[in-house]
Batch of 4 targets.
Target 1
Amino acid sequence: MEDHSQFRLLSERRFLPFFVTQFAGAFNDNLFKNALLLLVTYTAGGLFGLSADVVVNLAAMLFILPFFLFSAIAGQVADRYEKSAVIRWIKFAEVVIMGVAAVGLWFGWYEMLFLLLFLTGVQSAFFGPVKYAILPQALKDSELVGGNALVEMGTFVAILVGTLMAGVMMKAPVPGPVIAVAVALLAVAGLIAALRIPKAEAAAPDLKIRFRPLQETWKLMAIARDNHNVFLSILAISWFWFLGAAYLTQFPNFAKTHLMGDETVVTILLAIFTIGIAAGSIACERLSGHKIELGIVPIGSLGLSFFGIDLYFNMPEQPIPSDWWMIITDPHYRQVAIDLLAIGIFGGLFIVPLYAYVQREASPDTRARVIAALNIFNALFMVISALLAMLMLGVIGLSIPEFFLVLSIMNLIVAGFVYQQVPDFALRFVIWVLSHTVYRVSHHHLDRIPEEGPALLVCNHVSYMDALVIAGAVRRPVRFVMDHNIFATPIMGSFFRLAKTIPIGPKSKVPEIYEAAFNRIDEELAAGHLVCIFPEGKLTKDGEVDTFKSGVDMILQRRPVTVVPMALRGLWGSFFSHCGGPAFSHLPKRFWSRIHLLADYPVAPEEASATMLENKVKVLRGSQP
């Protein structure tokens, strides 16, 4: 049996060297940045005549500034050249930067180290676009979610380990030389791993590189806006980094002021939050069924808000001095740890499908530049997050738990806006919930549906849930043709309009709706979409496949396209079927159903007819209604 676990990728050369490279890079960035801040804070006591607090914020600015300045050029480079070579050059630059940094750490040349922190940000800015653009070339579509989950898990674990190791190394008798050796060795390890990354050909080899940071950044924004859904997904990802930066930045003061914790409490909060994101990222693979599933993104956003609000209401009323062990074991503090863990888990569920979706939907020849635009937005949102925190905590005077509460409410508002703008999110959410609660759906041979181009899907009609079951199983968006009366119901009507369903009715009663339906079907097929019809024209009243009407022949006469016969088994007897009386008028015979959706081989348009397709669907469905 084929191993579908994403961890299988860690044993394959097309992924493992890349994973090690990105892990070592993220580890090194955070080790160097945090070690430098600790050295300046506790050893130098300041720098350039500035206080330690100002220097810490200066360091954060120096590291993030290159993402604004160089991401556009980095995206061009990643699209223009073979990607494994780009990664090797970036890693070679890291070896040089960290080699010089090792000397500076050894001798305590802190002013020089701040320049090198900027250069570290530069090489990270160049690595970002190629890091995500190479994945769709190295992995299959069915592996994209798993691959992204591993990358996100690796990144956050590397951030955690790098941060913790900086603190551990600071306890050495002479920390500078110890940190110097560590950053140099990690840079070399990243380069060695990069040498093993397989080739990934250039996506746009004729692209002209333009070294105009500001102009190219604006051009990059235009490229990102070309696909509305991709652009809003980019904004949603950046919103996650806005929230993540807000939480992570406040942990030290949150632990000290509101939990009366020592330094180990900051560490355990960071560890809990990071482990949660890693766990949520890994869970995406199983929850999404090895495909890019937008339906779990709303679950992630709802969880972020729910547990953020829960955190506010579960803060200890009278905190006592605490350490890391009390955070885990004391009932007054344990709920805080559970809430932070859950926020991390739902953050992972939120972020991984979005990254995979952007990678898949972005045009291959501009993919790296779209990722570069994403990095710019991420950096911008993190800066805005810091400014908002300064405003709310410093000027308005909110407490940190109150700030977290405001963020949770803002998250609901932002999520509502995104899902209203991109109905696919809300649609896939409903489908995912149904297919993982009321129904257990097994798919058979759905790979027979063309991956691109127009096709007509024909299926038996058992219940009002048929379209949702099919939509949840088929990877491509599907336009369904359904009885116009459904659109008169307030909830169902709104939902099916959201799904771009095509209403149809009898020619004798509603000729205008009948004619408009066939025009819409033709337009959707002409645009290269999948259209699904139920040729029986109504729900079955006895569980058997009824006679296929001639509408399918009319569609194919106007637009000859490939036809894929499909069949549903297991929905007869549900609350949404006519078993035992009209749908919705009787109690269901069972509260969950095991459903099978089967696809037959595609049929050429010149061979297809209503009678032939009816027979194929009957054979496909078999004797089980």
Target 2
Amino acid sequence: MRSHHSRSQHSRSTRRRHAVAMIVVFAIVAVFGVRLFDFQVVRAAELNKASASKQTAVTKVWGTRGSIVDANGVVLADSVERWDITASPKDVVVDGFVRSKKAKDGTVTKEHVSVMDALGEIAEITGSDTNKLYEDLSKDPTSNFAYLVKGVKLDVFNKVKALGIPWVWDQPHPARTYPNGAVAGNLVGFLGTDGALAGLEKSYDTCLTGTDGTQTYEVSRDGVRMPGSTVTTKQAVDGGTLKLTIDSDLQYFAQQTIAAQAQAMGAQWATAAVVDVRTGKLVVAADYPSIDPNDLNSVPAESSGSRFFTAPYEPGSIMKPATVASLIDAGVLQITDKYTVPGWYTNGLPAGSKIGDVFAHGDMHWTVAGIIEQSSNVGVSMISEKLSLPKRTEYLKKFGFGTKTGVGFLGEESGTVQNPVGLDPISNKAQQFGQAISVTSAQMASLYQTLGNNGVTVPLSLVEGCQHSDGTVTEVPTPTSTRVVSDYAAQQTLLAMETVASKGPLKSTISIPGYRIAAKTGTAQVGGADGKYGSDRIVSVAGLLKVDDPNYAVIVTLGLPTKIKTSAAAAPAFAAIMKQVIKTYRVQPSTTATPDTPTEW
């Protein structure tokens, strides 16, 4: 009996528990039902009104501008993180706001901060003007966005953020920096408030520019961003990396070298180039003065571009190897041909006109190589008679004069080759020794590249390609090579030029023991505003390393020196850069001896 009674009690207890559980479940469902009815029916209007107090804000996500790097990946231009300090005018409370202030002893007090006090704090940190900040904040009081200060650095951004101003926000904003300063600054160019303004920054803007994205987020009535509400609506895409042919270390050395020599000689400007003769790649394209893109006031405005590409000038005697190579190619000249060179050239010139050399002399017995060694204008005028003016003009144009180089640099000039039709008798001959013709430093570099490359021009290049943010690469098209003169003509011209380094007046400065150097000096008269030549000069030394196996062409030009007005002013810089090229590229010494090319007879 006791066992039956116990089972009955257990059964009644189980039924009670089930009943209680059912009542609890019913109660919970009822509560949720009531709440749901309350949300959807009773309080629908109220909640909809509260929801309307929230807003969706849109903010820009910056696509970072790509870098510019040298041939070895050294960064010449880069983007760094900066922040824009922004505000929400509609959330500004006229009476100010209250914030907590922590004392040094750890106690916390409340302080009232007016709008002008808050703006004053921002102005003090950022170096801005309080009144200007207030003006920007007050332009549209109903707006939820206004710029206060743009492009501040991280330490400034943190200080502003620490102020705890409820209606002040921030936006990350990439800015441009040039970590190597003036190194290749005239080539790289720079940005302004309206975007790319100069140099490669401008001409390759499509490669470098990123695509901005957007994000949306919800903000409450008091302007607070709702956590977890940010959604990227458009993905930002970074810009590509522009790779140059320049060697930044060698570029730096060349810039420093020509700057020091220009200043020592009192020159107004200078350029220098180093070209890989096999590829046409510019490993140096230097200018003095050199702009630091971080400081646009570092040089006068007229020196902010690259004179190397954009400023034609009369080159003088460094043009003479082009004349000799043309005549040899045409089959009318050999470097061993003998000439009796008088002190003046008058053949075919108007009465009273004459062409002379930089030094007075009587009849001299020079070979063609000797005419190059002595840099005789009279001698070049004489040998030019062996080829017609139209044919000589054709050769000048084949060497690239009168046409822009393959670089396509922003603002590049083409220079001028005189039209042979109706050309006056003096200019007829003067073009052949570098007067009455205008060229750029880039075109002269191309001439020596051609002579060093067995008479074949490979168009100069400064950019290798653009690597996009997705990893794909757009390479600069391979330039089309063009034969200008025969390999024999080019090699013979180099032998004539070798006498300048082995026998000429500057041999002690420009010769390098163990290396066969082909060189040519130049001292050009500069025309004045009246069209007449004055006392100003442009001086140059150009050459090739090595004669027996040409690898690199080097050219240095100084504009308007005042202390030494001959090519001797440019020779030390030429020699220094040539030696640095040997070190940089570990150029092996020549394996053959310098031949005794006759210069006199």
Target 3
Amino acid sequence: MTLRPALALLIAFTLAGSAPGALAGDATAPAAASTAAPKYATLPLEPTATEADAAQLSARFLTRFHYDAQPLDDAMSARIYKKYLDQLDGEKVFFTQEDLAKFAPLKTRLDDAIWNKDLTGPFAIFNRYVQRAKERMHFALGLLPKGFDFTKDESYIVDREKADWPKNQAELDNLWRERVKNDWLRLKLAGKDDADIRKTLTKRYNTLLDRIKQLDGEDAFQSFMTAYAETTDPHTDYLGPRLAENFDISMKLSLEGIGAVLQARDEYTQIREVVPGGPAAKSGKLHVGDRIVAIGQDNGPMVDVIGWRLDDVVAKIRGKKDTTVRLEILPADAGPDGKHELITLVRKKVVVEEQAAKSKVIDVKDGDVSRKIGVIELPTFYADFAARAKGDPNYKSATRDVAKLLTKLKADGVQGVIVDLRNNGGGSLDEANELTGLFIDKGPVVQVRKADGDVEVEGDDQPGLAWSGPMAVLVNRGTASASEIFSAAIQDYGRGLVIGEPTFGKGTVQNLVDLDRFAQTAGEKPQMGELKMTIAEFFRINGGSTQLKGVTPDIQYPKNGDEKDFGESTYDNALPWTQIPPADYKPVADLKAYLPQLMQMHDARVAKSPAWKLMLDQLAQYKKMRDQTTISLNYDKRLAERKELDKIQADFLARRKAIDGDAVPSNPDSTLDDGLNANERSLKSELKAEKEAKEAKDVELDETAHILFDAIGLIQSNPKLAAEVLPYGGKFSEAVAAAPAKGTAGASPGTKQ
């Protein structure tokens, strides 16, 4: 998705891995790490011949093979121009209208820049962006010694997406005066004195200035090509070499490295997480909070990495399996002048379990009745296609992992299963197809229409089920793409209940094009990156599309308000909703037979639920705050608003404690605005807050388990109803334990979406 917040691009490279940090490992074995320090470019940044070739080659693919192929002409150039400016300065806080007047001649020439392999124009815009960003940081720093007068009745526009660019330097200066004043006021309201505020903001702006200085030509090219790709449709992307490696890791959930998640903090690269089972964890010598100050390869020299950008540090740590890397560490509990430690690690294959499927059992009680409900949490549809192609019997696959979890849940005696797909943005189309096969006997799952109009039906041809009992799929606005295929198929078959919010609405299929394979060069091929290109559209087996509309749940939960800014319908170039004839399929059950009863029971329960009422009130408060586009810069007014907000938050906290007991944040102030940005709090406090968030009561999941609890009760009490709502007339319900588990044979390598 397009980066909208101001300064997002300045720090984007620090997130080029598994959020919130980057994994110190690699999916592909790069060339031997250089011993030289990176030379951060000075302006002007200039495109390379390889980048020019990659741009032209991408254009050839996009204009010939894209699902909705459009010519790269002056009209497309104008759209790229707009997208590029939004990419760089979506909040209109760096460029002025005077800058835009100078850029204007390029508006209809970006197509020529690509076809003629002359990227000086796009790079000129990026260079001006870097120049303006540096100027803004210096301007912000220059305001700090003076302080601010908070008795004036001023206001600041916090959402500038629809605002105009400042007319000139004077307007831009005033905008940044208001911006810095708001930064100061937030810290002041949090109880900090002027000296602490000045210190915090000086550090903040200097850190951002350092990040700006580290932007390089690859960042410029990535930004421009992202703008071009996303102009064709919202889900086509260009992945430069850095992003391509991380995308590969996210798909196969494994890498070769030391098994540590890193993040940039001040001038250091810090250990944010040690991955269980990896070389770092097994050594027992690397700990959360440790800072990496130097890196060496095998017996080579140590290279100081203080002040480096994160991806350059990660590149030093990456390398082939069974090779050695040495890390010079400043321990977490040591001061800046503390004693350094030298750690030697041998790189190995590391499995990234954080994004792998997980399961748990919820015991649901109602009166004297208790039932076990199994939950499978699936963050993404992953598959290690390369490992499968090599014949690796242990290759990672979402379907294989879920099949194993279902076997375990059956052994635990669960009576129903929830597949939690909240915030699952998709992944492998084949995995969505294969995963559906775990819950149906056999039949079509999805229809795929290609650019030429040809429609292929993909489905499950293996008889038998891994789970034939009652099931539900929990979704939200972040449920997209492959997740919508699975949810729609379960709904169309009547196989289970779909519960939650309407989903994202992404009904297109992307494929990866490795541009290096098509490079017209002799000898070693350059690193040109990859093109993630839309090649098809998928349709439900009932003939409808999930495009734009998404999947509408059988039982809907309250929306959180993000649908105005998040989802396929928010893109101005999204494909329209269409439909095709249905596939040849037959629903296996009719959930309408008990859906009204379940909805009635759900409504009655949540009406009396303190936890549900608290969730609704918190959602209402969140919507109220997110709809606020302008805030006062007057201290007294903001203090009154702060006190009112504190009172609301304190009430929320008291209600939550009454519901959950001790399962609430230990520090009540952690729920309030302390005026700090990401990475300005201590790592310990950030990790603690994340842990508490994970352990907090999940009201939606608990209610979904209760709905499934109700469904099981209705089925058990009414044999006629059971024949209608259980799959295949309920005939598999007792034989499921004896049926061979499906999904142990992996999905074929195929389209990634």
Target 4
Amino acid sequence: MLNEADLDALLAGRHADPFARLGLHADDNGRLWVRALLPGAAEVALLDAGSKKHIVDLEQRRGGFFEAMVPRRKHRFDYRLAVRWAGGGEGVYADPYNFYPQLADEELKAFAEGRNFRPWLSLGAHVVQYGDVSGVRFAVWAPNARRVSVVGNFNNWDGRRHPMRLRHQAGVWEIFVPHATLGDLYKFEIVNGNGALLPLKADPYARRAQLRPETASIVAALPEPTPLPRQRERANRRESAISVYEVHAASWRRGVSGEFPTWDELAEHLPAYVADMGFTHLQLMPISEHPFDGSWGYQTLGMYAPSARFGPPEGFARFVKAVHDQGLGLLLDWVPAHFPMDAHGLAEFDGTRIYEYADPKEGFHRDWNTLIYNFGRTEVREFLVGSAIYWIERWGVDGLRVDAVASMLYRDYSRPAGEWIPNIRGGRENLEAISMLREMNEHVGEIEGAISVAEESTSFPGVSAPTYAGGLGFHYKWNMGWMNDTLRYMAEDPINRRWHHDKMTFGLIYAFSENFMLPISHDEVVHGKGSMLSKMPGDDWQKFANLRAYYGFMWGHPGKKLLFMGQEFAQRQEWDHAESLPWGLLEDDRHAGVQRLVRDLNKLYRDHTALHRLDCEQGGFEWISAHDAEHSIYAWVRRDGTGRMVIVVCNMTPVPREGYSLGVPDGVTAWREALNTDSAYYGGSNMGNGVAAAGLPVQAQPAHGRRLSITINLPPLATLFFVPI
């Protein structure tokens, strides 16, 4: 018979080792006893698992605790518990305390030592089968907890029912709950080291969660490894055309009543639209589970769970397939830089700061009122790196865009002097974060064709250099300097642009120091910054012309491309995450013209290797005219290294220039205009250079320091592309 001290501890949910007391155990005299803690049960009987024959009735002592000595049995055996509930109903159940430890010692040792970068195979909730018993194996890392129970709709959210087994070598708690199944709600009830009961915690490794404001995790199937799209490796190469359409899934196109679209609704329309627009990749802002809509997903808590806003995870699998069926690559925003402090989340998860840095000088972001992961802790690195691998391997996405990398790289990021802690060398770099990012990129790089893209806004060296060369190992880096400089230039009245000419040329000084992507992202059209159209100076005609000229400049400039949704048709107001894009604007031909331009720019970019093959190489670019500040004209040649060329010319004033002499490279007898952003087809004045088969003949007339030239008409506020005939 169980002693009163053990019984008191079990009933209070404070027993140090419930597996040593509950279930089937032999006493000092070799007699077998069976014990069960089943609050709410009126009667419990022991049955033989095979024959279902009654063996003995268990006696209820108090508080739902039942026990009985087992007659005529001397060895362990498989059994079931027949329960009649006081509230009505009855059933026959396998006993969770009759099952051996779930996780192998080597598995846990690898996790504790930082060698398990697929921790989601061990931790979280997994449906498993033992003989004829199906159930769910739950496992959670909470090394400083005194007790952890899994609670859910399968046990009436009662923490006394399923206290878990602690595997001391890893700080992991585990239990197999028979008869739990897919779709069950659950959380973890944790008692901290001081004996205090914490708020219920969602599972850090949950693969599905409730829709906010509810916060429970949901038992979900582990996605099967997804075959790599055949085109992925080639499509993501440096020499390939990469043009990315960035989307906030909740507001691209909402339902008729303003509700979130489902994954299937998005799959029906979004991939086909992106492909029709000529983009090569679709990038989704964070779709991992997050509690606050207004964070746009960047304050995520569900690093392994597609958001419930768009329906069950299975819908996301169908969406990924629809993207690939259109020949597109899919990139996901991934956020390892910070996490929110919601009580059900990672903050002080087991009563201590195991996921975040303990000192607020390291572990708190002032800018976002969020916490910072402890990048130096083994289990946290596995959690983060494992998440990156999970989305690529298990969901088949093509790559990750990593948010706020600069905030991870520097310990003094957005902190005044005296309010940050130097690294062990006395410097400002976060050596642990740097190491984690390199580790993540190395593992991503092992997956054929997968890529990572860094949003990094400083001059930190080697962001897109390989780790073996001392770099961070990203495949591409957002060129934030280019974006800021060029948008400042475009905001100037054209009459003043001569004084800011270098803002458009400065980026070429460092354009090939990284594998750059040119981003016009969501960050440029929020928080009072206005839309791209509203940034442009002048009257309405000039605003549209300026924007078209700028897009032409961007697509002709070295670097991969990224454009945020709505800007492809010149959205007038800045983006609102709570509203659908204003698709009705396309009834206005000026907006439709910008959309047609972006579609054609993408086609031109893909069709002409000179515009993309050497995007990241100095040999792919050559100035024709970089210093004509007086007329605000820029001209350059793009090359692919095999002799193919494209000339790009920009006139950033509203002054048309007829008969303009443009120096051209040797080896070509005539050039033709391939695209003109001033075409009437795009909403322009239709000044240009015709499409005659003979094109524009090369003349032995020097210009721009070259011995040959062509004579062109330069439309107002326009970018032109010329290709050899």
